[in-house]
Automatic annotation (TrEMBL):
<feature type="transmembrane region" description="Helical">
    <location>
        <begin position="12"/>
        <end position="42"/>
    </location>
</feature>
<feature type="transmembrane region" description="Helical">
    <location>
        <begin position="175"/>
        <end position="195"/>
    </location>
</feature>
<dbReference type="InterPro" id="IPR000175">
    <property type="entry name" value="Na/ntran_symport"/>
</dbReference>
<protein>
    <submittedName>
        <fullName>YybS family protein</fullName>
    </submittedName>
</protein>
<feature type="transmembrane region" description="Helical">
    <location>
        <begin position="216"/>
        <end position="233"/>
    </location>
</feature>
<feature type="transmembrane region" description="Helical">
    <location>
        <begin position="278"/>
        <end position="299"/>
    </location>
</feature>
<dbReference type="Pfam" id="PF09991">
    <property type="entry name" value="DUF2232"/>
</dbReference>
<feature type="transmembrane region" description="Helical">
    <location>
        <begin position="99"/>
        <end position="119"/>
    </location>
</feature>
<keyword id="KW-0812">Transmembrane</keyword>
<keyword id="KW-1133">Transmembrane helix</keyword>
<feature type="transmembrane region" description="Helical">
    <location>
        <begin position="54"/>
        <end position="87"/>
    </location>
</feature>
<dbReference type="GO" id="GO:0016020">
    <property type="term" value="C:membrane"/>
</dbReference>
<feature type="transmembrane region" description="Helical">
    <location>
        <begin position="248"/>
        <end position="266"/>
    </location>
</feature>
<keyword id="KW-0472">Membrane</keyword>
<dbReference type="InterPro" id="IPR018710">
    <property type="entry name" value="DUF2232"/>
</dbReference>
Amino acid sequence: MENNQLWRTGLLLGALYIAGITFTAFVPYLALVTMFLLPVPVMFFVYKHERKPILVYILLTSLLSIVIGSIGVIPIVAITMIAGYIIGTSLKQKWPYLTTFMAVSMSFLVSFVLSYALISVVANINVFQELITAVEQSVEDSMATFENLDEETRQGLEEQVEQIPQVIQTLIPSALALTSAVAGFLMILIAFVFGKRKGLPVPKAPSLASISLPRSIIWYYLIVLLLLLFGPVESGTYLDTALANLQFMLRVLLFVQGITFLFFLAQWKKWPKALPILISFFTVIFFPLVQIVVFFGIMDLGLQLRQRLTAQKK
């Protein structure tokens, strides 16, 4: 009886996963939605069963998915299978929310890089180089639109546009890390919504107002900034690339700190809950506001504003 139930569950959840892969592979405009749903059936199976059935489920479902979707779905299968396994295991073992988030984000990054390496070797396709080539072609095409401008303005715009491919190439590692964090968050968010509806012991996410990063981030950011401005760093070297990526990631962390400080401030001032959400939304849309939020993050960590405001309230 238990074996029959196991097979029924495996077939149902396997069919759901394969249907999701089929939509992802053959209906591209749905891929961004279906990709984040794919870990859900894996999560349910992992949570309910032991190691041996889990291994059989993952192997059979992965093989059938690749047969149906071809070699191009290998990265998606690897990313979503591992993410689903981690989320299911985290619920079974009652991991804290942030531990699950870090594990899923890291698995996304590692799975993507390994899948990219495999496809590069097997299919002889360099995805990142293709991206850079496409950007360079787009830059060349955009140059034609500057012909009617005066000489000084045209030269300034051309110099800025010509730097775009180099900037993209330099910041690929940071972009991958940031993408992994966002994707990990969305996968967990969606999986936990479905898990909660089915009565799984979903951990409570910490409130944004309570999240605060280590104060040492300011010192790391200052050191990197000083090295980039005054250090003996030659453009295009590995050190220059590493420092540029560190600066980018540290600015992202300071931006996150600034956003969480806004939520803390709204809670402390008893503002409407929708206000910090609206501010965050407009900050993402209007890039100049990002610098202000980063400044808030620096001030919060540097001056320990939350501790001061909390003490003042007491």
